[in-house]
UniProtKB/TrEMBL annotation:
Residues 19-148 form the GntR C-terminal domain. InterPro entries: GntR_C (IPR011711), TF_FadR/GntR_C (IPR008920). This is Transcriptional regulator, GntR family. GO terms for molecular function: DNA binding. SMART domains: FCD. Keywords: DNA-binding, Transcription, Transcription regulation. Gene3D superfamilies: GntR ligand-binding domain-like (1.20.120.530).
């Protein structure tokens, strides 16, 4: 935030977005897998309650996009907190801050993914993996959630493409 009290959002290039997505898939997948191994019954209840609120909001004829975005983040971080890896959590938080302005583009746009409730299906499978204490299923569902949103954002063409094609070295 500047002295004039306005917020400046850095522009993101295609290659930066792809790199961050790759890192997120790996780190958030690791946190989710570990959470599936360690999750307590109380934490599972909390995660299910957040997921239920997310599903109820999504089911409305005119869901509150701000509420969906907040619940999405709350759900993800409730899961990551269960990994009991504070350094990993800090790294994930910094990635979310970096990618935050674009991460929920599809929800703001009301894209087909939103209409078809693709995100809800991914979250259902993440929660199911946690309930079953299945680190592979939970982390795979999380990776699919991230990659599905990333694929949509890349196809939407909202990122700077100047670096999308690497220059060829000329000798």
């Amino acid at each position: 935030m500047s002295a004039n009290r306005y917020l400046r959002v850095p522009k993101m290039t295609v290659s930066e977005f792809r790199e961050i997505t790759s890192i997120r898939v790996n780190l958030e997948g690791q946190a989710t897998a570990r959470a599936a191994e360690l999750i307590s019954p109380k934490a599972m209840e909390q995660i299910e309650a957040i997921h239920d609120a997310y599903c109820k909001e999504f089911a409305k004829s005119a869901p509150d996009v701000s509420q969906l975005i907040a619940l999405n983040k709350e759900l993800h971080f409730a899961i990551y907190n269960q990994a009991d890896m504070p350094i990993l959590l800090q790294i994930i938080e910094s990635l979310w801050l970096r990618i935050g302005p674009i991460i929920n583009y599809d929800m703001r746009l009301g894209a087909e993914r939103v209409i078809e409730r693709v995100q809800v299906g991914h979250h259902d499978r993440i929660v199911e993996g946690l309930l079953n204490r299945d680190p592979v299923a939970a982390s795979e569902a999380l990776r699919n959630d991230i990659q599905s949103a990333a694929d949509f954002i890349l196809k939407a063409g909202v990122l700077i493409v100047a670096d999308a094609i690497k220059p060829v070295d000329v000798e």
